[in-house]
Amino acid sequence: MDSGVPARAIMVVALLIAGGCGQVSSDLATIKTARSLAAERALVARLNAQSKLRPAYSKGMQRGAVQQLVAARSQLSQPDGRAGRAIGAVAALPDDAGPLRLGAHRLAAVEAQRENH
Fold first, then answer.
1. SS3 (DSSP) at 20
2. What global pTM score does this model have?
3. Residues 6+ apart with CB under 8 A from 25
4. Number of structural domains the chain divides into
5. Which one, of 19, 67, 18, 15, lies nearest residue 41 by Cα?
6. Contact 103/93 with Cβ under 8 angstroms?
7. Helix (H) and strand (E) counts for the chain?
């Protein structure tokens, strides 16, 4: 089952958009991408727990998302700021849907705060 492919395509587009923005816009785009990656990790973890994905595929998707989260954090203007810490925390989470959903919600809150300022 290739349920992660459409989400991966969306991630690539989001990363390309992030590359063409100014620093503040770039940070916001990076945060949005990180939130999407966290949500994708949660979905993959849920589907894996339901035995709807092959374990090797699930591990590969999780590993790729973690690598992209680490890279996204380093692209921020302040990698050790609130957004960077939130992204780092999501990257460090286990492949468990519940905590990953919470991490995605935390990133959504950081995103909303950035959009309102």
1. coil
2. 0.79
3. none
4. 1
5. 67
6. yes
7. 5, 0
